[in-house]
Amino acid sequence: MTKELAFVVGDIHGMNTALEALLENWDKNTQELIFVGDYTDRGEDSAATLKKVYALQQEHGAICLRGNHEQLFLDFLNHPNMKWELYQRNGGATTLSNILNVPESQINAFNADHLAKEVMQTLPWLKAWLENLPYYYEFGDFIIVHAGVDLSLEDWKDTKPYDFIWIRDPFHDGENNTNRTIIFGHTPTVNLNQSVSIWKKDNKIGIDTAAVYGGRLTAITIDQHQHLETYQIETQKEN
Known about the structure:
Blueprint: E1 5-9, H1 16-22, E2 31-35, H2 46-60, E3 63-64, H3 68-78, H4 80-89, H5 92-100, H6 112-122, H7 126-131, E4 136-139, E5 142-145, H8 161-166, H9 169-173, E6 181-184, H10 190-193, E7 199-201, E8 204-206, E9 216-222, E10 227-234
Parallel strand pairs: 1-2, 2-3, 5-6, 6-8
Antiparallel strand pairs: 1-9, 4-5, 7-8, 9-10
Helix pairs in contact: 3-4
């Protein structure tokens, strides 16, 4: 960590237009850029979003965390015939349509193994990148993670990889004894506080504000100790 401030971005899910607008608020000279994961699936242009986030990592050292949708994508690339149905149910067909420039209605005309090979040929850096995404990041008094941590453990770092990217209620409802503030995405705040504002409770801050469901794409700025500002971009609901 080289900067005293950070700009933390919530779940994007391919909403690239909103991402571009949101990033206008990021000061690359003073703020570390951190993404909480879920870059693809369901939104307007997952391919553009992936390329943007990857470029920001390569050119500006952005921290790109692993979300459950990155894991679903990686599992599909590793085991296409076994994992295609699950990935497809979670928006994967939209992502592959974007990447391969094939109408989504035609994606199912191809077998899963062929689709995976085409993706890896089109984006040769993608698989290795997905494999190396970290599960969490520490910034000052903050823990930044995709879904949450296992608060029943003596040391939150012993959280299982599955829980870092999939956990919900046990984290939301659990008592935060980490002495840190935990910033997370994964669960839309409309499911936590019935709104598309950020969610705050027990030193936890939820910043998935349902961008791909007609909510907002959110980022917050923090210093080493506290939440400073919130930025939000309105989006239109994707089908």
